[in-house]
Specification:
The chain is built from 16 helices and 2 strands. The chain is mostly helical. The longest helix has 19 residues.
Length: about 375
Amino acid sequence: MPACTACGKPTQARCGGCQLSPYCGKDCQSQDWAAHKSICRIGAKQCAVCGKPSTMKCSRCRVVTYCDRECVKADWPEHSEACVVMDPPSIVARARGMPPNDAHDCLWEEAKSFRKLAKYDDALVLFEEALDINRAAHGEGSYKVAQCINAIGGVYYEQGRFQEALAKDEAACAMVERLFGPQSALVAQALMGLAAVRNELGDVSVALELELRAFAILSAIPGADLDSVANVFNGIGVAFLKQDMVKDALPYFEKAISLWQCVPDVDPSRLSMAMQNLARCYRQMERFDDAMALYNDAIAAVQQMYGMVHHQVACALDGMADVLVAQGKPNAAVALGAEAFVLFEETLGPAHPRSVAVRSKWV
């Protein structure tokens, strides 16, 4: 049984704010509040300094939420006293002391944060731990198990491990469909993940079919989640673009951007991705100025939350280099492409397929 943070007595009760620190009663919690308050923000979805909506966590402790680097700097004098580096083993150890549902929530949120920062190995450790906890607590056929399998497939996809991603996504999709029926919004989300993998494997017609099926499901649901609708529009556009059907792809990217700009807590990397896809259309249509402007907007969208060291920034720089080549400016293109390669190596690692492809193109 956990021990009270203040007095050391055995207790099952925890702080009602973060659900992490154990306390035996209100007196002990009040006594410890001065030390605990700066880390009692684990579930916060707003910046600890200015209150703006955000899901970006302190990169050291993975606990306190901030909206940008300026707020991180502003809070550092106070936060530094309680900021302890939180790595995956520490997070796993913390989660194992919680009830299964709380453990899932803790692991899930932290894994998503690592995933957004392209720390895929760390995210995988936490998603796999969540999968084991849910299998033990709820059985193989539960939604949380399917959710974890789908998330692991998503990480494999982002690591370029497409065959492994395909196996996970197919399994998750079948489980969700069995649990909720073929017309569920959760099935649509699973289909979109499966379509993305199929696109990377070259099964473009299958990918388009899966995206259109997902769109049909979402269209039949009143008040469907805008983030999901934007995602399916982007996926349809990608399937068209991979078939060089630029004019068919373009309106879907425009719709995706328009919708994501209306989603309050949208992950900027999603918006950036759609902007870059539209920029590729513009490049192929020889609308070079429009393409470069969109790539700059894509970088700005990511930079605001994650800074310049992010793989979507690298993607945008690579795309800008392609535009420079199309404009007959090879020297400027190579310089920008080399910058993209360095950033890909730093964020995704030298063995990632994107790093390898960019290295062969520019270095």
